[in-house]
């Protein structure tokens, strides 16, 4: 998981934190300080804001129409980082999600830590984490096996298996923290998550399906989609233990309107879903990658690995492999398929990509984003609770395409409750909404003309009948 999250700022710190906003025709990011629900610009002034304090009302009138327009782009994708998990966990349990403990090894700890630090620095991260350690340890294990160092490889494999078990338990612990929270807080957290997801998924039928990508290993998005009634289309086919398929066709879900044959229409609430780094419930068997029936927030994964057909799989076969600074894993199966889906979804004209809780720490994802922005009609929206390491603003400067990038950074803009309440678009933009709007406009115009030049009764009937 990545570092950008709601865990980084307590309530007291959030009230005085600096927020960064850049939308629409802003030439440069605007910084403002929050004092409760009142905000004040720091430095440069904005033509759309008067002098002095302002609040959510002024920001909403600036942000919400802009996001509504972008969310109706021909192609829309959402990239969710660990910030989403931390935000929902904080709403449910009052604290951020469980962090990742460092890997403990016997004989090669110093060497692996040193190599992990070098890998983290080359990726632009200050400190190595468990993901870096696991990647280096897996490479070393492969080296031991090539050199036929059976004793050393057996010891390292055992310790790696224990490390992967602990890793899986930390992910399940975060899920359990949400699932077992006090009922009112849990309902609030899941309702906010559903509102967040539906703001993106509520697209008109003539638009391409929403694509959701995540770097997280937990199943929070899957749980929110179930509550929201969203159908997630991924590369897994089957019911009991779905199998990952490379030959993913452009599958979708349609329905036939009553009385109309041969004219199928898109079923609402369907989304394409890709977990770029794998998942805690993916297991590599002899030849296949399967998704096992692991309950959300289960205490342990071991009992579910003993099912027939898994071939005695251990925690080392879990497909929760870490990101690689040199993209090694992304060249291997199944990651090559997953990252191909990301590039195919965002690198096309009239495409909008929204990131939430992603700190731009994965260079292979950043490369796809850079390629996307070479297409002039694309747009990137970065929403993040904070930027503690400065990677978001550094990437913004390096990309060099400010007119194609919008920024909403800081708790006053990107806190999950605040975001869904004030700034995200309405979660139901459909023909009925537009029809009602046009009807109200016409009736309002008709009422205005009654005092001056009352219309003929037949004209009024004909005018309204056109709706």
Describe this structure in words.
The strands form four sheets. This protein has a ten-stranded mixed beta sheet with strand order 3-2-1-16-15-14-4-5-11-6, with helices on both faces. The chain has a two-stranded antiparallel ribbon with strand order 7-8. A two-stranded antiparallel sheet has the order 9-10. It contains 15 helices and 16 strands. Helix 9 runs parallel beside helix 10. The protein is of the alpha/beta class.
Brief synopsis:
The protein has 467 residues and is α/β, with parallel strands linked by helices. The protein is 42% helix and 14% strand.
The number of helices is: 15
Low-pLDDT ranges:
1-15, 322-331, 457-467
Say what oligomer this is: single chain
> What's the number of extended β-strand segments?
16
Name the average pLDDT.
81
User: Could you give a short account of the major beta sheet?
Assistant: 10 strands, mixed
Radius of gyration: 25 Å
Shape: globular
- Assess the beta-strand content as a share of residues: 5-15%
As laid out across the biggest beta sheet, the strand order is 3-2-1-16-15-14-4-5-11-6
Distance, first to last CA: 51 Å
Helix content: 40-55%
Please describe the structure with a list of short key phrases separated by commas or semicolons.
467 residues, alpha/beta, ten-stranded mixed beta sheet, two-stranded antiparallel ribbon, 15 helices, 16 strands, globular, disordered N terminus, disordered C terminus
Give the helices and strands, then pairings.
Blueprint: H1 11-15, E1 18-22, E2 30-35, E3 38-42, H2 56-71, E4 75-80, H3 82-93, H4 109-122, H5 130-146, H6 150-179, H7 183-201, E5 210-214, H8 220-228, E6 231-233, E7 236-237, E8 243-244, E9 254-255, E10 265-266, E11 270-275, E12 282-284, E13 289-291, H9 335-346, E14 351-356, H10 363-373, E15 379-384, H11 391-399, E16 405-409, H12 411-414, H13 416-423, H14 431-452, H15 457-465
Parallel strand pairs: 4-5, 4-14, 5-11, 6-11, 14-15, 15-16
Antiparallel strand pairs: 1-2, 1-16, 2-3, 7-8, 9-10, 12-13
Helix pairs in contact: 3-6, 3-7, 4-5, 5-6, 7-8, 7-13, 9-10
């Amino acid at each position: 998981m990545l570092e950008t999250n709601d865990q980084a700022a307590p309530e007291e710190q959030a009230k005085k934190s600096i927020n960064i906003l850049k939308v629409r025709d802003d030439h440069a990011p605007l910084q403002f300080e929050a004092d409760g629900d009142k905000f004040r610009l720091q430095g440069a002034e904005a033509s759309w804001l008067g002098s002095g304090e302002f609040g959510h009302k002024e920001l909403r009138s600036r942000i919400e129409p802009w996001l509504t327009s972008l969310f109706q782009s021909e192609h829309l994708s959402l990239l969710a980082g660990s910030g989403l998990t931390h935000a929902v966990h904080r709403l449910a349990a009052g604290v951020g999600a469980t962090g990742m403990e460092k890997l403990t090894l016997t004989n090669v700890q110093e060497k692996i830590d040193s190599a992990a630090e070098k890998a983290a620095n080359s990726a632009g991260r200050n400190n190595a984490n468990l993901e870096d350690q696991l990647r280096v340890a897996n490479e070393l294990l492969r080296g031991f096996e090539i050199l036929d160092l059976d004793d050393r490889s057996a010891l390292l494999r055992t310790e790696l298996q224990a490390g992967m078990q602990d890793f899986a338990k930390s992910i399940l612990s975060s899920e359990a923290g949400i699932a077992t929270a006090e009922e009112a807080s849990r309902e609030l957290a899941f309702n906010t998550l559903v509102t967040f997801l539906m703001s993106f998924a509520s697209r008109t039928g003539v638009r391409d399906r929403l694509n959701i990508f995540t770097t997280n290993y937990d199943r929070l998005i899957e749980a929110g989609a179930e509550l929201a009634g969203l159908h997630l289309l991924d590369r897994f086919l089957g019911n009991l233990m779905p199998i990952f398929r490379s030959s993913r066709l452009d599958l979708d879900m349609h329905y036939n309107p009553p009385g109309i044959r041969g004219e199928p229409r898109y079923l609402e609430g369907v989304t394409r879903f890709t977990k770029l780094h794998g998942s805690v419930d993916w297991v590599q068997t002899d030849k296949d990658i399967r998704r096992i029936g692991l309950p959300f927030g289960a205490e342990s994964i071991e009992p579910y690995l003993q099912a027939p057909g898994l071939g005695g799989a251990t925690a080392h076969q879990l497909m929760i492999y870490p990101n690689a600074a040199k993209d090694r894993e992304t060249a291997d199966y199944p990651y090559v398929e997953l990252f191909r889906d990301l590039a195919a979804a965002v690198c096309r004209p009239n495409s909008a990509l929204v990131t939430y809780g992603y700190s731009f720490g994965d260079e292979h994802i950043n490369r796809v984003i850079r390629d996307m922005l070479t297409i002039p009609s694309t747009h990137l929206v970065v929403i993040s609770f904070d930027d503690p390491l400065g990677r978001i603003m550094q990437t913004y400067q390096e990309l060099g395409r400010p007119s194609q990038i919008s920024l909403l950074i800081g708790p006053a803009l990107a806190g999950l409750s605040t975001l869904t309440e004030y700034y995200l678009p309405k979660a139901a933009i459909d023909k009925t909404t537009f029809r009602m709007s046009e009807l109200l406009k016409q009736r309002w115009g008709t009422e205005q003309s009654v005092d001056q030049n009352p219309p003929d009764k037949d004209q009024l009937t004909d005018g309204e009948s056109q709706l």
